[in-house]
Design a protein that fits this description.
single chain; alpha+beta; 5 strands; 31% helix
């Protein structure tokens, strides 16, 4: 039942394929808030796909992607006429060998003109992959 946004945080481990559980968690936290909130499992899967593409584009091997985490929250209102903060959903996901899992949903606030939060944290092995990819066509001169 949708009502007031819930203060606090829900911690869970929900597979990206389980639409019903994801939607239930979002409704439990969002209440009637919708403007700056993630409201569907499709939006959450889109975030996971975006993170997976980011890892892949940077040369991270799938086995090294395990342990990566993502924290995301929508951007604030873009018009300057908005003066107050609004409710926004902050989601946390973790990459496991079986794919991305939703691990946390909480209500946060977003201010006008505030940028989107899309914070991807990777393991040391994934970091090494990224550096190797970045340096692949660069040679360092011996001094």
């Amino acid at each position: 039942m949708a009502g007031k946004p819930k203060q606090g945080k829900l911690e869970m481990k929900i597979n990206m394929k389980d639409d019903a559980k994801i939607n239930s968690a979002l409704v439990a936290i969002n209440g009637r808030s919708a403007s700056f909130c993630y409201t569907s499992a499709h939006e959450i899967r889109t975030l996971a796909d975006r993170a997976e593409k980011m890892l892949s584009d940077r040369g991270v091997y799938k086995k090294h992607a395990t342990g990566s985490t993502l924290t995301a929250m929508r951007s604030g209102a873009t018009a300057k006429r908005y003066k107050y903060s609004a409710n926004a959903t902050r989601v946390t996901m973790a990459r496991t060998p079986g794919g991305w899992f939703l691990t946390g949903v909480e209500m946060g606030t977003v201010c006008p003109l505030e940028k989107e939060v899309f914070a991807l944290t990777v393991s040391p092995d994934a970091g090494t992959d990224i550096i190797a990819r970045a340096m692949s066509d660069i040679s360092v001169r011996e001094v």
